[in-house]
Design a protein that fits this description.
The chain is an alpha/beta fold. About 40% of the residues lie in helices and about 15% in strands. It is globular, with a radius of gyration of 20 Å. Bound molecules: 5-S-methyl-1-O-phosphono-5-thio-D-ribulose.
Length: about 350
Amino acid sequence: MNPTHQVFPVVWQDDHVMLIDQNQLPNEFDLVQISRCDDMAIAIKTMIVRGAPAIGVAAAYGMYLGAREITTHERDAFLSQLEAIADQLRATRPTAVNLFWAIERMLKTARQTLGPVSYMKQVLLETAQAIQQEDLATCRAIGDHGLAALPKQPAQLRLLTHCNAGALATAGYGTALGVVRSAWREGRLERVYADETRPRLQGAKLTAWECAQEGIPLTLITDSMAAHCMQRGMIDAVVVGADRIAANGDTANKIGTYSLALVARAHNVPFFVAAPLSTVDFHLADGSQIPIEERDPAEIFRIGDTEICPPGIQFYNPAFDVTPAELITAIITEHGAMSPASLATLSEKQAR
Ligand code: MRU
């Protein structure tokens, strides 16, 4: 991979954050400067930055940006105002647990840091930077573990992915697309098939753009074509990301992932979930407890400026669905690929 083509959706620069505006891709490559926590909360909610691990990184910086706006020098008052900032960021998007994980880590760091408030703020910035760097290393490990878990035949694989679980959705390498990148780097990828991912089209807009940056061969299909492709023997494995994985391995990811898993099972195509351990929510016994975000119906009834259905129609627009663990061949984290049933063995690693 040519490192000059690497994509970093969240960058700390001087005293502010620069975000790639993912709502403008692929037509415009715009950067948005974020200097205040309020603006970071808006950026997460409006999906300027999106994808579970990238949301976590952005929220960590949001916590620091909020912390530095606090004027008190008194420790307890600082910590209670930081809790209010955490609440504001938590209210942005409900499903991706990385958001809550990163906010909690920032709060814990603040509580455990002794010394003046100015020093606590400095440690918070360093922690946000550490979360970002760790995610990059984590995604590279996921990519390599994922490559090792992929079918050995054929020599060059045709992988299907859904939504965008790439560099744009993480600190910079990707989870599902991290596996694709590792396969490409090792000469094991024939091509990636990308679902367009209705309604927001992250596959068409983001995954296709990201792969084009590095010359990774990609074929774009609509979501409803995946079954046909598998029936025709065109897909060797499915690799998707995750927004929240329950303790039993049930996995919330972009709407349409569940139907993809059902189709994969019907056609005996292995179905992999690639995600950092921070995406596992060991507090939830199973996927029925995962909160599912519902978004603006306009995402369904409007394409560009055109309304595509008659007035007076009712809508339902869940942004995620839950794939039952039994449909998942393996979950790939930075600790390796394992069956969903074995996931619980990692809970102590997360606690550390
Ligand atoms: O609504 P989005 O675009 O934030 O949803 C993103 C996904 O569903 C991704 O697959 C998931 O967050 C994993 S990203 C590595």
